[in-house]
UniProtKB/TrEMBL annotation, chains A, B:
GO molecular function terms noted in the UniProt entry: metal ion binding; prenyltransferase activity
Designated name of the protein: Polyprenyl synthetase family protein
CDD domains for the chain: Trans_IPPS_HT
A GO biological process held by the record: isoprenoid biosynthetic process
Gene3D superfamilies xrefs: Farnesyl Diphosphate Synthase
Keywords: Magnesium, Metal-binding, Transferase
Pfam families in UniProt: polyprenyl_synt
Transferase among keywords: yes
Family, as annotated: Belongs to the FPP/GGPP synthase family.
Amino acid sequence: MSDIADILTREVPAINRYLEGAANTLNPLVQPVVRHVLLAGGKRLRPLLTILVARALGYAGDNVHPLACSLEFLHSATLLHDDIVDGAKLRRGRASAHVLFGATHTILAGDVLLALANRLVAEYDDPELTRILSEALLQTATGEIQEIAHLRDVDLPLDTYFSIITGKTAYLIQASCHCGAVLAGASETLCQAAQDLGHAIGIAFQLVDDALDYTSPATVSGKPTGGDLKEGKVTLPLILYLATLPFEERRRLAEDFRQDQLSAEDIEYLRGNIVAGGHAEKTRERAAEYLAKAQAALALFPPSPEAELISDVLAPMLAREK
Amino acid sequence: MSDIADILTREVPAINRYLEGAANTLNPLVQPVVRHVLLAGGKRLRPLLTILVARALGYAGDNVHPLACSLEFLHSATLLHDDIVDGAKLRRGRASAHVLFGATHTILAGDVLLALANRLVAEYDDPELTRILSEALLQTATGEIQEIAHLRDVDLPLDTYFSIITGKTAYLIQASCHCGAVLAGASETLCQAAQDLGHAIGIAFQLVDDALDYTSPATVSGKPTGGDLKEGKVTLPLILYLATLPFEERRRLAEDFRQDQLSAEDIEYLRGNIVAGGHAEKTRERAAEYLAKAQAALALFPPSPEAELISDVLAPMLAREK
């Protein structure tokens, strides 16, 4: 266990130092926006996974940070663009970039971060890594678009919901693990295990997020409670709840939701019912299933302190309150 | 000369076919936005330059289109994001994507095109190409930001103006030529000549655009005449005009322009004065100097029908009216 504590104490500050240094190389005009999104904290889940998977699969070199951080830059770029897309006023409890800096600087700073991510990866002289990164951006943007296309779609099939969260969240986390495996020169089987690990973590992560949206007070999560309902996002707690309603009640609610006819009180009442009905909890249970899949994928890795660390952070991921 | 006509007749439809085919592979939800920007016409200058430079420098393979078209996709992505940034209502004479499809779909479709561009280039297994593409996106976005930072800045130094147009326009055209040279496996000298060629074409292209903004009727250009003045963009015709004014007159006009105090009539009067003073024409003369630099760079290429074609299209580029 002291190995594990050592790894975290070493890796997270090293990631932050690298992010800071790379941000310093950008044009001074974009730095305020970039710093705002990068230094807002965040768990550094994606670069950490790249590093841990690379080490767990035998990478012994000292050039993992540009690759790992390119995934954080890509993630930050999508956050900047999403802020505009969602019209979100808050991000991690602070004002969104577009509120502070305007849509123009936010869009362009996002583009600069996308370019930076690609440039960092290009330095590895391994087109497979560039392919993974491009695919991750493609899938993330497509997942976002799919989500918007299904706003207020109360008939959203479960598999479409999973396809949306795979695109908008899981794919990039999968790519983070995959990049680590490719950097380590892992076998095809282990590359696939790394992808399965990342995919399962990503889905579990988003399911917990979707549950927290119903239960976590804004003071803890930095986001308004019930934000998804207000924005018309159909996520698993709502899907599960709707399935329990008698036909006529479901029809009426569905109609009101679709036409954005619910008052703030209606929404708060609905949110209360969904939580009381255990549907946020059931969403966490689905997340637990995916974390079990993640553990199964991880079991294919050879034993190492890093694999143990990944295993150890999966449980707290489920229990998190923000 | 018939060689040359043959090349154009062959290459442009082939580019359009490839663009169409690649767009078809995208998620159906983004296709309307992508088609809107891609099929709006455009000269296909960037992919054409990649192809012509590659051929001129000895590339004999049949795999030039993904690379060439990745530059058109990157260009289209920046157009989509710029439409939002500029708040432009018109693009090539048609409604802008964000007016038709909303900011959300426009931002995300731009991201999808950026990802597609990177993925196409990754297939070449040549990290140098990925590096060129990433750098082009970085420079383009940075140039845009710099332009916005200097809106209404009537004291804009000439070298900052050139740095802005290098970033927002010339760099991507330079990258198009550079990619062609790298694909052809050209020597370092010829790679540099290709970059010099693209840089000079790009600057000339933007100078002509900046001149046309003052002179071309909306019915011809698809953009409102004097649009730059209205938007507060300080370009060469205005810079040259301001330098001719007596101190006090310059100070008053500068102050009004800076504070956006000019009425539509004031702006039209100012535009008339700038054109009557020959400053749009002088801007075209600067463009002619850059086209001469382009010819000088091209003179380093070995003789070929493609090099001849590039040379032949430079003069009409200066004379264009839209």
